[in-house]
Design a protein that fits this description.
Length: 519
């Protein structure tokens, strides 16, 4: 009886989703507002909230100086265990932010992240024991997870379609910049008495700045409309599209209202059922989470977490300086994806970069074997220099494609499950991050560096196969149109058809406007 009732309920929900889909099609996705030039305000908003990405980047590397509070254990497994306190806490923070963002808005999660980051930084800066430092790190991690989950979601909903990828990638650039700043601070404070206290305290400054500027940023128009605050959504859309006509703004609001009509007063249980039991939504979630898993399990974060340790193991006598070079490479090459993601699309850049990374691990694998056998001499050989070059090239490829596209996955999810799906995507991020950071040093010892790097190459190869077969291109498409891509299968071909239709309609509208202007 209960099973029949549940099935009936699911059927009704699916019927409701079908009605929403038909209504969206009937509106012919009136996105003419997307042709207008966005204002400076939307870029300032993206820059402001991307300080949350900077928080994400600047925090993870403070444990390098944990030894100054208490002598840490030296066994590989114990070194591993000092890192997971960071990924585990953001995982929890992402869950809390995801469960509350639909009910209380996107901005609340960012505010919460700022508060937690400041509190955690103060606790760490005042710590006199490993236990105090661990508590502070955990609190900061909660804030990092909250901000890291909400910021791409918020930017994705605020951004014009043709700049959506670039604006989300800017958040990832801020992550990379935070990592670079953290390395630089680490190098600068290494020989300063109690320098680690200054380093973690400085981390609170961007959190305070973000909290101070965030009131100037409006709530997401899609979130406002979902809660019936249409007049506020109208004002927000006019800030994003200041050159839009009243009819274009009204059309955009109407389009969002149709998408939001299915989630009014819906429970969390309903959202979970929609996400996991509606095939189209599940396929979108799998796609986003798979790309995120590849970005974490492909080995990049091992270089960011353990770069000094790794380079010491293969013979470099100045591993901290080399780590700064790695961080700088990650930041600089992130601009490549920023420039091309909304031009060539996500699929092309992702497939090319994942291929390059997979094959890149092969020479790294071979060189690590050579350098490991000669590292005891303490000399920097041709093999160690070439290994450094190959690792830096790997970081460049990763920063140019995989890292930013992983966080763009929020655009694949329809409004009714977007926050929940983005939360799960963040959980995948931090869960895989936890696995990598917990196992890397032990893998290096038991599997040797060559075996470890070979494992990462295999993960990247699997990712390449998945991208070619299942990753649909949705750049320049309105968020409300993306739901059509996954209606039957993973939508690689259907996305191409929809892209052509949207381009054709926009070109026809542009020609009609040009003809009208001549009359």
């Amino acid at each position: 009886m209960d099973a029949n009732a549940n099935r009936s309920s699911l059927d009704k929900d699916e019927d409701k989703a079908d009605v929403v889909h038909e209504e969206l099609s009937a509106l012919e996705l009136d996105d003419s507002i997307e042709k207008t030039d966005p204002g400076v305000a939307v870029w300032l908003i993206a820059c402001t909230v991307s300080m949350g990405g900077f928080l994400f980047g600047i925090h993870p590397y403070s444990p390098t100086f944990l030894a100054q509070t208490s002598a840490p254990p030296s066994a590989p497994m114990n070194k591993n265990s000092s890192q997971p306190s960071h990924p585990a806490a953001p995982l929890i923070g992402a869950v809390l932010a995801g469960l509350s963002s639909d009910k209380y808005g996107r901005k609340l999660g960012i505010y919460l992240g700022c508060v937690l980051f400041v509190v955690g930084a103060v606790v760490q800066a005042a710590a006199f024991s490993l236990a105090q430092m661990t508590v502070g790190r955990f609190v900061v991690g909660l804030g990092v997870g909250s901000a890291a989950m909400i910021v791409p979601l918020y930017i994705g909903e605020m951004a014009p379609a043709r700049f959506r990828g670039r604006m989300i990638v800017f958040d990832n650039l801020c992550v990379a910049f935070g990592q670079l700043v953290s390395y630089a601070l680490g190098a600068g404070f290494t020989h300063v008495a109690a320098g680690w206290r200054w380093m973690v305290a400085i981390g609170a400054v961007p959190a305070l700045a973000l909290a101070a500027f965030l009131p100037k940023c409006p709530e997401s128009p899609r979130q406002l409309i979902a809660h019936g605050r249409v007049s506020e959504a109208d004002a927000a859309l006019r800030r994003i599209f200041p050159r839009a006509t009243d009819a274009q703004v009204a059309g955009k609001i109407r389009l969002i209202e149709q998408a939001a009509s299915s989630i009014s007063e819906r429970s969390l249980g309903w959202q979970i059922k929609q996400l996991l039991c509606v095939p189209a939504n599940l396929r979108a979630l799998v796609t986003a989470c798979m790309v995120m898993a590849i970005s974490q399990l492909g080995g990049f974060n091992t270089l960011m977490y353990y770069s000094s340790t790794l380079f010491s193991m293969v013979g470099f006598n100045q591993p901290t300086s080399v780590s700064i070079v790695v961080g700088g490479t990650n930041f600089i090459f992130g601009f490549f994806n920023f420039a091309v993601i909304d031009r060539v699309g996500r699929r092309v850049s992702l497939s090319l970069v994942v291929t390059a990374i997979a094959f890149h691990w092969i020479p790294v694998n071979n060189l690590s074997t050579i350098t490991s056998s000669s590292s005891s001499s303490g000399e920097t050989t041709w093999a160690t220099i070439l290994l450094l070059v190959m690792i830096i090239t790997y970081v460049a490829f990763f920063a140019a494609g995989v890292a930013p596209v992983a966080w763009v996955g929020t655009e694949l999810l329809p409004l009714e499950v977007r926050a929940l799906g983005t939360m799960i995507n963040s959980v995948v991020c931090w869960g895989c991050n936890l696995i990598i950071s917990s196992t890397f040093l032990s893998m290096m010892k038991t599997m040797t560096p060559s075996g470890t790097f070979g494992f990462y190459a295999g993960i990247c190869f699997i990712g390449w196969v998945f991208v070619l077969g299942c990753y649909a291109e949705v750049h320049n498409m309105p968020l409300e149109a993306v739901r059509e891509v996954y209606e039957s299968g993973f939508g690689v071909r259907k996305a191409k058809v929809l892209q052509r239709e949207i381009r054709g309609r926009r070109d026809a509208e542009a020609r009609a406007e040009a003809e009208a202007g001549k009359v």
